[in-house]
Amino acid sequence: MDKKIVVINGSGGVGKDTFVEFCSEFAKVKNISSVDKVKEAAKVLVNWNGEKDEKSRKFLADLKQMSIDYNNYPITYIKEQAEEFFKNDEQDIMFIHIREVTEIKKVKDLLNVKALLITSNRVEKILSNSADANVDDFNYDYYIENNGTLEELKEKAKKFVMEG
To answer: Which domains are delineated in the chain?
Structure first.
């Protein structure tokens, strides 16, 4: 299996993490997010405990935007993680969770990766912050609809891994 990096996106609650978990049953997966370091900072700054409510989502989006404006660190972090991924023979696919279309474009240009959007008709679109509100405003390479059962999503993950 050729190593590949995939940017994964979708509004909150559509099944991105579940899809990645299912993919890890068929390949060795590295899973990161462009907000990993932002979340670490939020824990220190405001004692954030992982809540996914609207207030927390907006705070994380705003904090990430400040880190982008300050020194573009989310992209630096992703680049470092990609370099580690390509050195590691134990991993096949690296998923990078990114919400912002502008950041997806940067990563696609930097690393020549593919982008995947996961959608679900069971989840209401989040509009409280710009990161979540604009996930559809991009031409993705792959689209996965998560409108069925977990078993159906698992089959889509298997097909994604096997056929790429």
So the answer is: 4-163 (3.40.50.300)
